[in-house]
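Hi support team,

I'm opening this ticket because the web form for multi-chain structure prediction keeps timing out on my end. I have pasted the exact lines I submitted so you can reproduce it. The total is 561 residues across two entries, so I didn't expect it to be a heavy job. Is there a limit I'm missing, or should I split the entries? Thanks in advance, R.K.
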Amino acid sequence: MKVLVPVKRVIDYNVKVRVKADGSGVDLANVKMSMNPFDEIAVEEAIRLKEKGIASEIVVVSIGVKQAQETLRTALAMGADRAILVEAASDVHTDIEPLAVAKILAAVVKAEEPGLVLAGKQAIDNDMNATGQMLSALLGWSQATFASELAVDGDSATVTREVDGGLQTIKVKLPTVVTVDLRLNEPRYASLPNIMKAKKKPLEEKTAADYGVDVTPRLTVVKTTEPAGRKAGVKVGSVDELIAKLKDEAGVI
Amino acid sequence: MAVLLLADVNGGQLATDSVAKTLTAVAGLGEVHLLVAGQGGDAAATEAAGLAGVSKVLFAEGHDYCHGMAEATAALVVGLAGSYTHVCAPATAAAKNVLPRVAALLDVMVLSDVTAVVDADTFERPIYAGNAIQTVKSGDKVKVFTVRTAAFAAAGTGGSAAVEKISGATAEGLSSWVEDKVAASDRPELTSAKIVVSGGRGVGSEADFALIEKLADKLGAAVGASRAAVDSGYAPNDWQVGQTGKVVAPALYVAVGISGAIQHLAGMKDSKVIVAINKDEEAPIFQVADYGLVADLFTAVPEMTDKL
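Hello R.K., no limit was hit. The queue was backed up. Here is the completed structure from your submission:
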């Protein structure tokens, strides 16, 4: 079974985000970029499925700017077999919306015919949490979101999902889209020999137009602002003082 | 203009708090119809009809809509969406599973975690784990969005809407429910609790998390945890407060042994009063806390539990 994993190039999760002075968005020029952490978990899970003999080939796809090549090389170094870059923007500040990404991925899926798409549950830049669900909808497939456990068995998969009250287990028919949550696995680091080998793995370059998908955004950004700050309060010296403050000053207990 | 609001129903129970808060968020957008889906949801539909601001309850009784299964529920919502300008739901795990699917089937974008409805087309939502707030205008024919309920007060009761039974499309054979593992608890629910006591990595072990739970029980509070504590196995995943967990805004939030990573702050910084107990006086949590106590949690927390 072929497994397709979409990966997104996003601001590194350790970098402090700065809103641009003109309010048009977040400053991404000369900022360290990495693979979306949830997507790393998806790549790792695909590799584990291959190690178990369930997956036969892992294809990683990235949609965005040309620089997303680096993100794809990271996935190849972790253990993916080949990569497809779909260039859909030239400015690093252009975020392709989940709906357009899902449409391009649906076209890639039709060409590649994977049995499973493993995706991160959300990207840490736009925090939309939508692409996997949208892709599944466009394909008319089943979906299993927020996975913390995945078992593929024949023509179905059993997935444990992180939901509000605890965990939910569902069974989905293959082919399916699974979006992964934080606790599914711990992604491996790529070794130096594998980083070298990844440079020789195939990376195909396409454009959004090749798939006939219009990536014009549906949402217009009116403005981007810093969140309202919160001021530090006072330090108290003892538990007694804390309880007194909460009772008398704040009136919350 | 009319709004379709998909209610969260868990085991036949209406998630009243989340629905009531979403009603407040969309109050300016027109008539609101509440969709209650799933067999055995009769009581939930009746309760929904009593919420202020609901003009009609649509009750889809089908077995396929139980357990929030995405494929069937999305098919049901899509079948109804033609009569509405807005389709929305509280930003719960259940709705975040379903609404993007609905949006794609309608060929529109989805907006997740809306924190303010500016006008019929314009919405505010946090991006980058709450490090920026974006105002966006949608040009789509139907606006599909989820509402971050912590940003809104709950609508009251006293309504008397009619309940209309409906049926709709399903999604035969794509998926099936196996089981729910929901921890039974007498504590208040995390996202609607007045007081939340959370523990972080500093608590050190699953066994020591009992200290946090004892303090919470003394205060009648819900128990939360940082991502570090959940990842380390000290607390279950559904206790996680933060950008990728639950977003809470109680009257009092007590952070114990939590350093205050950005991702955690995004989940609790709108709390009215924040207390931080941490032995590291440099911990970033003190920069957002109204009251900070630099102390060893293993002595301070039991002392506080005793003295309350």
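A quick check on our side: The CA atoms of residues 76 and 168 of chain B lie 5 Å apart. Let us know if the file doesn't open in your viewer.
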